[in-house]
Amino acid sequence: MIISAKSALKLIGVAIVCFCAVFVCTFFLNFYLDVLPLRDEVAEPMLPLYDAQLATAQMCCSVTGGVLALIAGIMVVFYVTLYIGEHSKELGTLKALGYSATRLSRSFAAFGLSAFIGCALGYGLGHAIMPSVYESLTIDGLTVSIHYHVSLLFALVIAPPILLGIVAYVCAYVRLKKPALIILKNKRKELKAKVNAKPIKNKNSFLKEISIKTVSANKLLTFFVTFSCFCFSAMVQMGASMEELVNGAMGWMILAIGLVLAITSAFMALTSLVKNSAQSIAMMKTFGYSLSKCVTSVFIGFIPFAVVGFVVGTAYQYGLLYLMINLIFKDVGEVPDYTFNVGAMLITLAAFVVCYTAITAFYVAKINKVSVKEIMLEN
Predict the structure, then answer these.
(1) Residue 195 in 3-state DSSP?
(2) Which of 131, 199, 293, 312 has its CA 20 to 30 A from that of 250?
(3) How far apart are alpha carbons 74 and 11 in whole angstroms?
(4) Residue 190 CA: distances (Å) to CA of 210, 275, 278, 281
């Protein structure tokens, strides 16, 4: 089976994550490479600021680039798994006809195309705003000119799509190495209650069991729900705090990136969740369960993961800003002390509840449209 460019371009989540990672790394790494040879030109009083800015560029690239690279890899695995599940009949038939796992898996390397688009756009926009970034990172008495570095083009635009293409190939190979009959059956955990005499008599127990099985059968989606809430919490609070502490433009940029990542992850996870739970939802509606009961059974199991994501994001942004302000910039004058911003946390929490309630309402409407007839025709 050939993975078309059109199919590869559907990995919009991977493209967005790669865009955000490369966008941030482009101007920070470029600044680092341009300012690194200029240490001898820096006046003695400005050396603490010089060292602090180099450390900040290193830390931001390591944290942002490293974490988002890992997330992009996990997304590729998720999409490959999803694609194989949706096309199990075609892939199993080709396997039965004699196509090897190696031959079938090679076409999955095309999934790196989405990463290339995201990286290229991030690299281009990073260069576009680079003059403004250099101006905000200026050091008195030091003129930093923007230079073009070919090594960054390879590291940020060429290498990531190749690596993610390899990840897609390996993931597909592992899954397609199974016998053709297993691929055709597409065996996976079904959301079924245990067959016994009591499930219908105790409706609360039945719904609780459905909720637990929904979470256990969608472990990868719990990660994306947690990551979405983490991004929202960490980046919004960090953006608000940085606007007051360091640089307003940088704060707004971080806030925008966080919102994009959070919304992308949330829609990707919940779309797959509703799709995977369609059969259970349709059957519950057939048994007479109300829409609110169906919604509860699908979504309530993910609430603890959303809370964990928000709490960890809050702790993460506080720890990172504390490290930057009180340790890296401790010898730099005119930098205020940093303490936990309770106001930003409360505003972020309120926005978090409103945003995710709105997203949930959108998917409640989708759940309400699920019908038994459609599920039976699909099966």
Answers:
(1) coil
(2) 312
(3) 12
(4) 10, 13, 11, 13
Residue among 231, 232, 222 nearest 353 (CA) = 232
Rounded Cα distance, 293 and 290, in Å: 5
Longest dimension (CA), the chain: 82
What's the pLDDT at 321? 78
State pLDDT tens for residues 222-274. 888 888 888 888 888 887 776 555 555 666 777 777 788 788 878 777 777 77
Pairwise CA distance, residues 275 & 221, whole Å? 12
Q: Extract the tokens encoding 320.
A: 């990172």
Contact 123, 26 (CB under 8 A): yes
CA count, 13 A, side-chain hemisphere, 123? 19
Residues 6 or more apart whose Cβ sits within 8 Å of residue 304: none
Q: Using a cut of 0.70, tell me whether the model's pTM lies above it.
A: yes
Neighbours of 37 (CB within 10 A): 8
In whole angstroms, what is the distance from residue 218 CA to residue 226 CA? 13
87: DSSP letter:
T
Question: In which residue are the tokens 């490369």 written?
Answer: 22
CA distance 353 to 261: 17
How is residue 207 written in tokens?
Answer: 């719904």
Nearest to residue 233, comparing CAs of 301, 300, 320? 320
- Sorted by sequence, the CB contacts under 8 Å of residue 25 that are 6+ apart come out as 61, 64, 65, 126, 156
Nearest to 8 by CA among 79, 85, 113: 113
Dist. CA 308–CA 185, nearest whole Å: 36
The C-alpha atoms of residue 248 and residue 261 are separated, in whole angstroms, by: 20
- Give the bridge partners for 142, in sequence order: 139
Quote the radius of gyration of the chain (alpha carbons, Å): 24
Q: Residue 218 carries which side chain, given as an amino acid letter? A: N
Residues 6+ apart with CB under 8 A from 251: 238, 239, 240, 241, 242, 243, 244
**Domains of the chain by residue range:** 1-188, 191-379
